[in-house]
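Researcher: I'd like a candidate sequence for this fold, 219 residues long. If you have to choose between options at a position, lean toward the conservative one.
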């Protein structure tokens, strides 16, 4: 006989919030997710905590949409488990990309200080590469949560996602910039809405892209 799946009981707080208003429930989830992201970043001493904490946010966010029953499970346990599981792998990928970003920034700085045709060509070339790099970074955390693959394949998949939905990539970049300005004006929002809103929108858009690709493959 097929096994029966029983819903996971909600905690008292989650149940009360869900009964009050579904929108309030999502605000609560996002705020708590953001607080846990900050906490796990600090738990890794920031240097080793930031990347796995960010990866854990996207793992949990993806799970909420792909497996809705997980929304009622303990968020603290889910975040901690994802943080521990991806700690070394995500740190290795994150710091490798940090080095690449630093090299691009250094090359841009050198090209700005180098007048003439060679400096101009180098400047615009590095700007184009940096824009492609940032477009890939926007989708990479979700791709790393969605696919089981090595670093090079994840980077290639994230770049293909950026190409597949350029307007969504621009919208996500604009959302990031907008959130940065809002958080600069209201620093308290950093505690509750620094990463989680961006992760929410990115997950929704990228899941739709993956679903569309699967449907085209099946046809």
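Model: Candidate sequence:
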């Amino acid at each position: 006989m097929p096994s029966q799946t029983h819903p996971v009981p909600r905690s008292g707080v989650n149940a009360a919030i869900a009964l009050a208003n579904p929108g309030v429930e999502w605000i609560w989830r996002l705020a708590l997710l953001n607080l846990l992201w900050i906490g796990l970043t600090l738990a890794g001493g920031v240097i080793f905590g930031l990347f796995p904490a960010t990866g854990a946010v996207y793992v949990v966010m993806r799970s909420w949409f792909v497996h809705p029953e997980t929304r009622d499970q303990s968020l603290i346990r889910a975040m901690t488990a994802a943080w521990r599981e991806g700690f070394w792998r995500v740190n290795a990928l994150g710091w490798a990309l940090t080095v690449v970003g630093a090299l691009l920034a250094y090359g841009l700085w050198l090209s700005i200080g180098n007048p003439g045709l060679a400096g101009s060509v180098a400047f615009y070339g590095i700007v184009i590469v940096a824009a492609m790099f940032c477009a890939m970074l926007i989708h990479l955390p979700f791709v790393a949560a969605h696919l089981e693959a090595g670093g090079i394949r994840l980077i290639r998949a994230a770049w293909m996602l950026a190409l597949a939905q350029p307007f969504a990539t621009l919208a996500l970049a604009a959302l990031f910039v907008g959130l940065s300005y809002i958080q600069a004006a209201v620093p308290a929002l950093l505690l509750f809405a620094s990463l989680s809103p961006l992760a929410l929108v990115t997950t929704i858009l990228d899941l739709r892209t993956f679903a569309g690709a699967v449907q085209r493959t099946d046809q």
